[in-house]
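Board notes (copied after class):
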Amino acid sequence: ELRVKVYNLPDDVQASDIAVEFVDLKNQTASKVEHGEEVAVIFAKIPQRDSEGTVQIKVHLLSKSVILTFQNPFSYIRAPAPSVTSILPTSAAIQTSSRVRISLKNFPMVSGSTDIKIRFQWGSMSASASVSSINSMPAQAIQDLEVDIDTPVGATVKEGFPSLIVFHQKFGETLSAILQSGFVFSNPNEKGR
């Protein structure tokens, strides 16, 4: 969320009177305005951009026909790579689903469990896990999460150490957290194991 401080903003200017322009990207309507004695703060959502770089910002006071420009541009920086910081327990049987908690760092903001996709992969074989619950701390554009999943079962689940791939459905696997050899599926019915 972008916060713009404006001195001497007329008290009658409300959020619906303000458009925040990210030049060459998108215009955003201000979400709210907090008026102070001398300084007002305008809040607006920052539009997504696929690459690093800078953009100019202009604030349009629509009812006053005034455009405020800024000397310095707004900078988009690369988000830190998401990562798996822990998984507990570290094993499950291939015949029955188990509850597992995955802790993630630097994950894109989620609004619900359907935003998170979990896949276990053994070479060319893979199986998806269902997300049962998420806990975020705190909700931000980049956040740390604890995700409870139910491990997959079925013909595509194999014994051994799969790669665990966690990604946001909006961004796909280009921005994923991958854990190698940190989890094992076993077959307790096999003799000698």
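Comment from the instructor: The CA atoms of residues 58 and 69 lie 5 Å apart. DSSP finds no helices and 18 strands in the chain.
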